[in-house]
């Protein structure tokens, strides 16, 4: 199957996502934000078990989104929601209150969650070619 050197067989135009897929991405974004909020509360309450629980929940929603939507975008959507929620919780208010303390657990939660987001988006379920399997020895 030669394409004549112009790459026309490999290049396919990009299509906008369907309404259901866009709704799934929006739902995963909100779920990621909810997990970020819950993790922010849990990680400081039961250190170090709460930190591990919060990071496990974040990894679960990132990787679960990748598998549910069958691509890396499914991991990126909840990761974006998680990061937005956690960053908004770290900002100080005019009253001087903020949710995160200056302890090591807070920094481990922030940096560990971001690292998990990158890992799950990179290693998560990538798109696989459709069609018959190409296993040798069949």
Provide structural commentary.
The chain is mainly α and about 140 residues long. It has one domain (about 20-125). The chain has four helices and no strands. The chain has helices spanning about 20-45, 50-70, 75-90, 105-125. The radius of gyration is 20 Å and the shape is elongated. This is DUF6113 family protein. It holds the Pfam family DUF6113.
Short characterization:
With 138 residues, the chain is mainly alpha-helical. The chain has helices at residues 19-45, 49-69, 73-90, 104-123. It has 4 helices and no strands.
**Overall pLDDT level:** 81
As a percent range, the share of helical residues equals 55-70%
Shape: elongated
Count the domains: 1
- The N- and C-terminal alpha carbons lie at a distance of 21 Å
Instruction: Give the C-alpha Rg.
Output: 20 Å
Output the number of helix runs. 4
DSSP summary, beta strand count: 0
Strand content: under 5%
In terms of structural class, how would the helical and strand content be classed? mainly alpha
Unreliable spans are none
Major β-sheet, in short? Answer: none
Protein name: DUF6113 family protein
Keywords: Membrane, Transmembrane, Transmembrane helix
Pfam family, one: DUF6113
Transmembrane segments: 22-45, 51-69, 106-126
């Amino acid at each position: 199957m030669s394409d004549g050197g112009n790459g026309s067989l490999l290049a396919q135009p990009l299509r906008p996502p369907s309404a259901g897929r866009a709704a799934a991405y929006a739902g995963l974004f909100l779920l990621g934000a909810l997990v970020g909020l819950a993790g922010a509360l849990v990680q400081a309450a039961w250190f170090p078990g709460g930190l591990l629980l919060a990071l496990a929940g974040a990894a679960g929603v990132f990787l679960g989104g990748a598998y549910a939507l069958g691509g890396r975008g499914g991991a990126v959507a909840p990761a974006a929601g998680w990061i937005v929620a956690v960053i908004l919780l770290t900002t100080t208010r005019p009253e001087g209150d903020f949710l995160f303390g200056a302890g090591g657990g807070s920094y481990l939660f922030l940096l560990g969650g971001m690292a998990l987001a990158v890992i799950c988006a990179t290693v998560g379920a990538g798109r696989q070619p459709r069609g018959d399997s190409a296993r040798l020895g069949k």
